[in-house]
Design brief:
alpha+beta, Peroxisomal Thiolase, Chain A, domain 1, 12 helices, 23% strand, globular
């Protein structure tokens, strides 16, 4: 469709085949919420203590907390929601198949409201916003809750190829001698079988092609930890975060625990690389494995106006691309360029960027290739410092970006992420 008129609350577009024009509603982000992002149970917190503050809270319950928080922070009545869309990448809980449905119902959204679970891996949280926006633009909804949820602490070990051995509902019980090895589902999903590489290795390959050094990766990682530390201490993220009830008590904004305080490039330089001497990836310059969820309320511009909302931002455009799996880490570059082209904007028009730091080297490679001023990127810290709860990340990026544009007085921003398997997604927003 070719846009030929743009107004305050929508765009008139021409349908080439039909030879007629239609009005497409603008979509606005009213607000949102997220849980704290906390180190998974298999890792160590930044202070060296064991992780797992959210380990016993299912992804669906984390999602419900985020949805409930988004509704409360935006003053949105649960009964006014037309659709719920939640991303969920590594579906780990015993009830994961119900995903968005259980998260929405637990958050108090009426059972008559349809709910969708989707998976675009690390782009799921951004894809949920795009999908919700498409529903609104098509006139199928006026109010959508979109987000992502993940509990990596609950990733199971599985026993494949035994369906004919153990009857339905009667798996091997405690004390049973199992005659084959089990599979670590989290570990096996870190490898892309199409290219035979770990996700971290796609970052190394990209850094080799773009020309990113270990020193540059460590310097960026140190900056991410430092910015994250400063944001936690200053309460920058507190406005986004809602508490999670756990068996051990409430977990809130002050409990984000992946960040390593007082990190420097020098302290990172001594860490060993994961894939030999030519690798750039270390435990200190890779994103943290954490649990968490995020959600936003998006509405048609006319509905937001009727409800008396003060939206944070307008969704301007998005870009979703496929690319070579061996350099999936490059995804933010072509997806951002696509979003910019659709919006008729350039890199120089963007005031703030949220680029998911799957790996510090990967982020630096994308920054270099796009020609971005690093002072505009992840100014409050990123996934190296705060962690990366897969499907929740994309929603967090968009929400953080919307708040940051408000704080800084910026106009346009892009939230973007690489996606395992060789994809990228970018969402371009305008502050209101």
């Amino acid at each position: 469709m070719a846009v030929y008129f743009e107004g305050k609350r929508g765009r008139t577009v021409e349908e080439p085949c039909a030879g007629r024009s239609i009005m497409v509603e603008d979509v606005v982000i009213v607000g949102g919420a997220r849980t704290p992002f906390c180190e998974w149970s298999g890792g160590k917190r930044g202070d060296g203590e064991p992780g797992g503050l959210l380990a016993d809270v299912t992804a669906e319950d984390l999602g419900a907390t985020a949805i409930r928080g988004a509704l409360e922070k935006t003053g949105t009545d649960a009964g006014s929601v037309d659709h719920v869309v939640m991303g969920h990448a590594l579906q780990t809980s015993g009830q994961a198949i119900f995903g968005s449905r259980h998260a929405g119902l637990k958050a108090g959204i009426p059972q008559e409201v349809p709910m969708l679970t989707l998976n675009r891996l690390c782009g799921s949280g951004a894809q949920s916003i795009v999908t919700g926006a498409q529903m609104i633009m098509l006139g199928e909804a006026d109010v959508v809750v979109a987000g992502g949820m993940e509990n990596l602490s609950q990733a199971p070990h599985v026993l494949r190829g035994m369906r004919s051995t153990y009857r339905l509902g009667r798996p091997p019980q405690a004390g049973t001698e199992i005659d084959k090895d089990m599979e670590d589902l989290l570990f096996t999903n870190l490898i892309d079988g199409m290219c035979g590489s770990f996700m971290a290795q796609t970052s190394d390959e990209l850094c080799k092609r773009i020309g990113v050094t270990r020193e540059e990766a460590d310097a960026f990682a140190a900056m991410s930890h430092q910015r994250t530390e400063n944001s936690i201490d200053a309460g920058v993220w507190a406005q986004e975060i809602v508490e999670v009830e756990t068996a051990g008590g409430m977990v809130g904004a002050g409990d984000e625990d992946h960040v390593v305080r007082d990190t420097t490039a020098e302290s990172l330089s001594g860490l060993r690389t994961h894939f030999g001497p030519d690798s750039l990836v270390t435990a200190g310059n890779a994103s943290g494995v954490v649990d968490g969820a995020a959600a936003v309320v998006i509405k048609s511009a006319s509905r937001a106006a009727a409800d008396g909302d003060s939206p944070l931002a307008r969704i301007v455009s998005w870009g979703i691309v496929g690319l070579e799996p061996a350099i999936m880490a490059h995804g933010p570059v072509p997806s951002s360029r696509k979003a910019l082209e659709k919006a008729g904007l350039s890199v120089d028009d963007i005031d703030r960027w949220e680029i998911n730091e799957a790996f510090a080297g990967q982020a630096m490679a994308c920054i270099k290739d796009l020609g971005i001023d690093v002072d505009k990127v992840n100014v409050n810290g990123g996934a190296v410092g705060i962690g990366h709860p897969l499907a929740a990340t994309g929603t967090r990026l968009v929400l953080t970006l919307a708040h940051e544009l408000q704080r800084s007085g910026g106009k346009y921003g892009i939230a973007t992420a690489c996606i395992g398997g060789g994809q990228g997604i970018a969402v371009l927003i305008e502050a209101l």
